[in-house]
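Severity: low
Component: inverse-folding endpoint
Summary: output formatting inconsistent between runs
Steps to reproduce: submit the following structure tokens with default settings.
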């Protein structure tokens, strides 16, 4: 992408250490923004994604310590940074963990967004706000493909917390005239995805199996269907949402859905394997057609108490208003992720 020089805009990104935070930072720096990215205080902070994109020492990138659950911290952050745009990407974003830690998830993923909206209302209501909403809010299938007016029915503490943050964004838009936009993004993946999420878990395991570092990949529900896109294109959609004339709600998706099983087959294929699935339920397993070796099996510990069975989004509103459309196919995305994991595992590191 060509750098477009500097501009006078200041963007605040919460959750810069995450997948989307890294790609959005790259995009906004390229557009000339002054970027302020927040990270949490931990005993050893991890900036591997920013490092992988070669951004960690960029002169227009400023890293700021921040915890989303602290209202005072949110107020002082917005007062100090004086951003034109805030992208709220910080969250406890793992659905599985939200069943184990529902209260923490509600505080970070739900109330965290409210803290920022309050800061905007009290400090400067002209700041444009992007809320990272999710297809998990659709949850139990009500209609397909899911779009902006499809009824919500979340199926996890994470989905419920995100729904609260979504409605708060809409409420602050309607009550106070704040430019609060909610992007309902379907699953988006990349080589920068954390390894706990299923696509990256699969591509990293494929690489490890190929290099003899792992024998078998263990997974949960293979029947779940997801609409998977490429994260780098989705952050471009976030930016477009905040450049629009009006605040609104937008779905970003590819309008294609595949099962987890399909993604497993695709990822192994990208590394030269041909898999065949046999059996049903907990005894289902996949063998390598050439060697007969079992490479994938079920471990029920990865099942969730309630599942989202089918996600497929209709991005036509975003296409019409923002001119946004996905470009990378699932095969290309999967191939890119497998290659990146093979490279990392060959080099002896994998985050
Ligand atoms: P990640 O899990 O990769 O990143 C989440 C970020 O939030 C990390 O930087 C994390 O910091 C930060 N964070 C967590 N808790 C706090 C806290 N208390 N205070 C401050 N920061 C905190 O998520 P993604 O990049 O994949 O997703 C970005 C956002 O988009 C999330 O809100 C997610 O829920 C949402 N979303 C993601 C989709 C996807 O498919 N990727 C789809 C739809 C929505 P740390 O590194 O310290 O943990
Ligand atoms: P999801 O993503 O829950 O859709 O949330 P995840 O990749 O965790 O799960 C997708 C589907 O795969 C099934 N699955 C497994 N999942 C994981 N993580 N590990 C396994 O071993 C496994 N086996 C099967 C899951 O049950 C599920 O059906 C992601 C997150 O990024 C959210 O923050 C975001 O809001 C949504 O996508 C859209």
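Observed output (run 2 of 3):
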């Amino acid at each position: 992408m060509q750098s477009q020089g500097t501009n006078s805009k200041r963007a605040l990104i919460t959750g810069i250490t995450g997948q989307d935070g890294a790609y959005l930072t790259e995009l906004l720096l390229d557009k000339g923004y002054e970027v302020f990215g927040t990270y949490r205080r931990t005993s050893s902070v991890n900036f591997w994604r920013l490092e992988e994109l070669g951004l960690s020492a960029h002169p227009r990138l400023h890293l700021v310590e921040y915890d989303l659950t602290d209202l005072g911290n949110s107020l002082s952050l917005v007062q100090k940074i004086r951003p034109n745009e805030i992208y709220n990407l910080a969250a406890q974003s793992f659905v599985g963990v939200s069943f184990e830690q529902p209260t923490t998830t509600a505080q970070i993923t739900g109330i965290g967004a409210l803290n920022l909206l309050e800061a905007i209302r009290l400090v400067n209501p002209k700041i444009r706000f992007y809320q990272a909403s999710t297809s998990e809010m659709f949850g139990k299938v009500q209609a397909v493909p899911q779009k902006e007016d499809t009824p919500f029915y979340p199926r996890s503490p994470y989905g419920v917390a995100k729904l609260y943050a979504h409605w708060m964004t809409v409420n602050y838009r309607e009550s106070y005239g704040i430019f609060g936009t909610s992007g309902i993004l379907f699953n988006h993946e990349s080589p920068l995805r954390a390894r706990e999420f299923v696509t990256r878990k699969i591509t990293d395991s494929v690489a490890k199996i190929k290099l003899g570092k792992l024998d078998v990949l263990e997974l949960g529900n293979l029947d779940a269907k997801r609409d998977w896109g490429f994260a780098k294109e989705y952050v471009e959609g976030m930016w477009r949402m905040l450049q629009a004339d009006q605040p609104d709600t937008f779905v970003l998706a590819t309008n294609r859905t595949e099962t987890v099983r399909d993604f497993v087959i695709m990822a192994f294929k990208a590394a030269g394997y041909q898999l065949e699935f046999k059996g049903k339920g907990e005894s289902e397993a996949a063998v390598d057609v050439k060697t007969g070796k079992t490479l994938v099996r079920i471990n029920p510990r990865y099942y969730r108490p309630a599942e989202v069975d089918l996600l497929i989004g209709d991005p036509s509103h975003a296409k019409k208003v923002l001119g946004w459309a996905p470009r990378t196919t699932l095969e290309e995305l999967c191939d890119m992720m497998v290659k990146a994991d093979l490279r990392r595992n060959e080099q002896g590191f994998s985050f």
